[in-house]
Specification:
single chain, mainly alpha, two-stranded antiparallel sheet, 2 strands, 58% helix, globular
Amino acid sequence: MLLFFIETGLFILYMIYLETNPKLGNIWWRITSNNEYTFCFNGLLSMLIFPFKSIFVWHYKFWDINFIIWLLFGYGIYILIKSN
């Protein structure tokens, strides 16, 4: 159960990071042509599966946008908590 909370928290942080990152932005929260904000699930989904499609996000410079690295980081936190 602890692992679920850690990974869920990291997922929320990842979503916020994607949206506020000056290199990216407008991934899942976009402005329409009517100047209304809308949730774009496809943008978020494409970022989640992007590490499986492109090899360049596995370079250490792009680990901040690689969701798999975030998951591994969360699992590492879980292992550290459980070992103490």
